[in-house]
Amino acid sequence: MSQQRKIYSADFKAKVALAAIKGQQTINEIASNFSVHPNQITQWKKQALSAIPDSFSQHRAREARSDEDLRAQLYQQIGQLKSRVGLAQKKSWTNHLTSSASWSSRQISESVCGGSVSY
Predict the structure, then answer these.
(1) This model's pTM is above 0.70
(2) What integer pLDDT is reported at residue 14 of this predicted model?
């Protein structure tokens, strides 16, 4: 009869590896407390120690990516707002020209016709 392999959860592995990293107990004491082979504890400890620097670098990389995304979104919004302002200024200038042109023509026709002009 063959024995099935034991499958340990990630939380359990982390707890055992942390106990080994702390060094308050020997590997053999930890092995007997958690019912795990000492070689397995050593492997989990090495795996945990090698993963720690990666966890910090990935966090910084994610922050940098999110900053870049935010910057790109802000530049896009700035561009959109600039184009809206440009269109509004163009529209305002056009309205100003038409209103001043019609005002000038009214003033001219009133002065030429003697003030009695009907539109």
Answers:
(1) no
(2) 94
